[in-house]
Write a structure and sequence with these properties.
The complex is a heterodimer of chains A (244) and B (139). Chain A has 244 residues and is α+β, with helices and mostly antiparallel strands. Chain A has ten helices and six strands; from the N terminus they run ααβββααβαααααββα. In chain A, a hairpin with a 5-residue loop joins strand 5 and strand 6. About 4% of the residues of chain A have low confidence. Chain B contains five helices and two strands; from the N terminus they run ααββααα. Chain B starts with a helix and ends with a helix. The chains are: A alpha+beta (244), B mainly alpha (139).
Chain lengths: 244, 139
């Protein structure tokens, strides 16, 4: 039986060739990854501007709860939770969907806690427009429903997702007077609210959104740090405040 | 630098990558745990549709890449060195694409993703040198 031929040891030339092949393969993999990323990207907030506004659930949740512009809940509630939010912030949307309904159900509805919305608009032009219209909805007593609907339809940051047609659809679904909403959005009243909210955020050195503060009675508000948006987190925070 | 020191450097850089990509993978599933230096950007990038590829978090792909480099360092053959350099090259190319996305499409910056990019630069350098070292030994 003839001896089995041995593979020759690698030479510098063959090593270089292997390296070139590897580099070419790596470049091809990058191209495949980029194409796959563009074609198969995950579904999310995406940037689709929908005009089918989702306004149902929270409208029902908030039914019968008093609203005074940015404040949701009984004026006599002992504890106030202050929510610094940007309507374009995805984590604020997560809170709105995961934590907010439980907080409203367990604390706001029974009149124990009231919520105060402090809108920020540092993420860009869509934040500003969204905030103007949300505060304008407050002039018709539906700020919280309007904010919720915007979160439910949130698009990619500054993609122009806060379209007039989206705003009009939400207004229509919530039974708001759209012409008044448009007028109020650019009114001095709303602009002044935006300025005072921005000043409050600056004064408290709010690091980002969402940020939560709790105020007991007329006491000094203090920042709280829920580690998740599970209602249990807010139970601990709010029960402590109510007991204090 | 000795070959052993080079291997150790590749392993160290890959471990740093495991830490950063591991954190990014974790916060992909636990977004509340994301610590961001300035408001919004990290969340926006992590929540964007580009953060996943066919349902797999991009951060997890990065983590798998770093783990693969660690395995290849342990294996240590000419092929292992070539594959390490190729993985680092893929990572660098894809990182450039992700930077372009952050700058021009998502319009927000994720600081942890940029830290990851900073790890890829030395990874590409040391894996390439490590591979070239084996060619030098052939001389």
């Amino acid at each position: 039986m003839p001896p089995k031929p041995r593979k020759p040891p690698p030479t510098k030339k063959s090593g270089n060739r292997n390296l070139l092949i590897a580099a070419g393969a790596a470049a091809a993999v990058v191209v495949v990854l980029v194409v796959a990323s563009l074609a198969l990207r995950g579904g999310d907030s995406g940037g689709d501007t929908t005009t089918t506004a989702d306004t149902g659930e929270v409208s029902t949740l908030l039914d019968g709860i008093p609203q005074d512009r940015a404040v949701l809940g009984s004026a006599n509630a002992k504890v106030t939770m202050i929510q610094f939010e940007d309507l374009q912030c995805p984590i604020c949307r997560d809170y709105q969907q995961e934590g907010f309904p439980g907080v409203v159900d367990e604390y706001v509805k029974p009149g124990k806690v009231k919520l105060r919305f402090v809108g920020m608009h540092f993420l860009g032009p869509d934040s500003t427009k969204a905030l103007e219209y949300t505060l304008a909805a407050g002039e018709q007593g539906k700020l919280w429903q309007f904010a919720d609907s915007l979160y439910a339809n949130q698009g990619a940051e500054n993609s122009g997702w806060v379209t007039d047609s989206l705003l009009e659809t939400i207004a229509g679904d919530l039974g708001l007077d759209y012409a008044k909403l448009q007028t109020d959005a650019s009114s001095p009243v709303v602009q002044q609210q935006m300025q005072s909210m921005a000043a409050e955020a600056t004064q408290r050195q709010v690091p980002g959104t969402p940020t939560f503060y709790v105020q007991v009675g007329d006491g000094e508000p203090y920042q709280v740090h829920p580690s998740s948006f599970a209602v249990e987190q807010f139970r601990t925070i709010l029960d402590d405040a109510l007991a204090g | 630098m000795s070959d052993r020191a080079l291997r150790a450097t590749v392993a160290l850089v890959a471990l740093a990558g495991v830490a950063v990509a591991g954190y990014l993978t974790y916060v992909h599933y636990q977004p509340d745990a994301l610590i961001c230096t300035s408001g919004g950007g990290c969340e926006t990038v992590q929540d964007s549709s580009y953060a996943e590829l066919a349902g797999i978090p991009v951060a997890l792909l990065g983590l798998l890449g770093y783990v693969a480099v660690l395995v290849l360092v342990a294996w240590d053959s000419e092929l292992a060195r070539t594959l390490s350099a190729a993985i680092a090259l893929v990572a660098a190319g894809f990182a450039v694409y992700l930077i372009v996305l952050q700058a021009f499409v998502i319009d927000a910056w994720c600081i942890w993703c940029l830290v990851n990019d900073l790890v890829i630069v030395p990874l590409l350098a040391v894996t390439t040198v490590w591979r070239a070292w084996s060619l030098r030994e052939v001389d």
